[in-house]
Amino acid sequence: METVGDPPSAAPDRPRRRRLHTLDWIAIGLAVVGVACVLTGLLPRADAEATVRRIVPILIFLGTVVVLAELTAVAGVFDALAARVAITARGSFRALFWLCVVVASLTTIVLNLDTTAVLLTPVMIALARTLNVPPTPLAMTTVWLANTASLLLPVSNLTNILASDRIGLDPVPWAARMWWPQLVAIAITMLLLWWWYWRPARAGADRFVPPSPYVPPDRTLYRTALASCLLFVAAVLAGVEIGIASGVAAAILVAGFAVRARHRLRPALAPWRLLVFVTGLFLVVQTIGRHGLDTVMGALIGTDPGAEGALRAGAVGALFSNVVNNLPAYLAGEAVIAVDRHTQLLALLVGTNVGPLATPWASLATLIWYERCRAAGVAVPLGRFVATSAALAALATTATVAALLVGPGA
User: Fold this and answer.
1) Half-sphere exposure of residue 179: CA atoms within 13 angstroms, side-chain side
2) Which of 167, 173, 280, 294 has the highest local Cβ count within 10 Å?
3) In the prediction, which pLDDT does 10 show?
4) Which of helix, strand or coil describes residue 407?
5) Torsion of CA 383, 368, 169, 299, to 10 degrees
6) How many CB atoms are closer than 10 A to CB 217?
7) Angle of the 307-323 helix axis to the 342-354 helix axis, nearest 10
8) How confident is the model at residue 217 (pLDDT cuts 50, 70, 90)?
9) Distances from the Cα of 90 to the Cαs of 132, 189, 209, 323, 343, in angstroms?
10) Alpha-carbon span 54 to 67, nearest angstrom
11) pLDDT tens digit string along 53-106?
């Protein structure tokens, strides 16, 4: 069985050095620039310390949830889930498409987009390998819906939590306002997923042979990993702080591996690139904000209270999400939108939720997904990814903002 994180084979005469990936250099560059901003005084030390304190829970979540996903994959949980989905599809490629869409959408809506990226990406990759089909359509289903299906509930996205606090909407009235835009976003995502990824892969593969149920090599580790994931999900649903939930779940699983398979516990499990990237990103974006970003955002979003203002907010949110990241893009946009302009704020939210698709760093979910694909040995066709994701971001953001303007509660 192919597992995530197996060490590469070494040459017989000398060890093979691992070359840094482009995203490694981006992460290091951001961190260096962020530190330079603090040392030169462009970002006051007090502001930098406040920023670091604010992102510590995010860093804890990222660090622990990636370890949880890595070890869960090694334990075979994702292979078992993939086999169950394939069996349920009963050999139908079209049924498999609908099942993957439903699972990805529900996971994002009920939990959050980062959880979908962490836990569902390995399931989709394992499913593709189980059925011996190209992994790209299933992987793209995960990353696209992790972003575009994150509008319906406040818990679905961290930006939603920020917006719901600003507007003062509880989950039920929030869902009543956002259900129609959410349906539109998912429908467009499904259409483009089928046309660009699933339809070409379907050629010659209308039927497939469902696999047998997966038998894990170590049932104790398998049960421990499954229990850890279920505990994580239950804690998130219960409102436990997400970093605490992932930390406890990861600690339980690490303890299980320490007893049953200590050799699998290596420093390489820690996602240093993600942690360095996020820290550097927030320091750099905060520095830019102090030196003109807020002014630029205000000029681009404008002050129109109607449809024009909403469309501009959505477009600016999507654009800046792909340039920097959706969380700082939302915070920068929120700062220049009047408190009473709820529709314009929700349009900005659409842009920062549905739009961050065209670059790997546009959202933490997209970045985690890219990291999961790379760790599992899946080569993401970057050119095609950027082109199709940019088209989806533009079309879905526009259509979803339009649905927000004409839907219930508008």
Assistant:
1) 7
2) 280
3) 40
4) coil
5) -50
6) 12
7) 30
8) confident
9) 15, 24, 8, 42, 44
10) 22
11) 877 887 888 788 888 888 988 898 878 887 888 888 888 888 889 989 998 998
